[in-house]
Design brief:
This protein is α+β, with helices and mostly antiparallel strands. The protein has a single domain, classed as Aminopeptidase (3-Layer(aba) Sandwich). The chain has 4 helices and 5 strands. The protein has a 5-stranded mixed beta sheet. The longest helix is centred in the C-terminal third of the chain and has 15 residues.
């Protein structure tokens, strides 16, 4: 893990750093997943579950979590290129898990694109398993 790294709650001053990180980590994401839409929505609901990893005041990672009283979810887990494989993602996920557990959450779900085998392996290494489910969605 990066020695000077701190994991903390998102601050308004982090917006440009998170936007840049997401543009790098999630190229081609749809408009509703981009920072301009997703960050204000998250800040309006459970803002304490939006965490960043920062080093020397630069955002190097992010995670958003949510809890509905039944299940927790992880979203937008991203690590700056050049900081990958340094423990940043693991630290972010563990801190999000601690935050969810403190709310009484007993199960966490997340979604990964089926083609993203590297990320699937990352989560498998953290104890997550592929479940026999079909993910459905509908834009409102």
């Amino acid at each position: 893990m990066t020695l000077k790294m701190e994991i903390r709650r998102y601050r308004a001053s982090d917006f440009d750093g998170v936007k840049s990180l997401w543009d790098e980590a999630f190229p081609g994401d749809p408009p509703w997943n981009r920072a301009e839409a997703a960050i204000p929505a998250k800040l309006a609901f459970q803002p304490d579950l939006f965490l960043v990893a920062a080093e020397d005041s630069q955002v190097i990672g992010s995670v958003m979590a949510g809890y509905d009283g039944h299940r927790g979810w992880l979203y937008s887990v991203a690590v700056r290129k050049g900081c990958e494989r340094g423990g940043v993602g693991t630290a972010l996920v563990h801190e999000a898990e601690r935050s969810l557990r403190a709310l009484g959450c007993e199960k966490i779900n997340l979604q990964v694109r089926a083609s993203n085998e590297e990320v699937v392996q990352f989560y498998a290494g953290l104890g997550y398993a592929i479940e026999d489910r079909i993910s459905l969605g509908r834009r409102l």
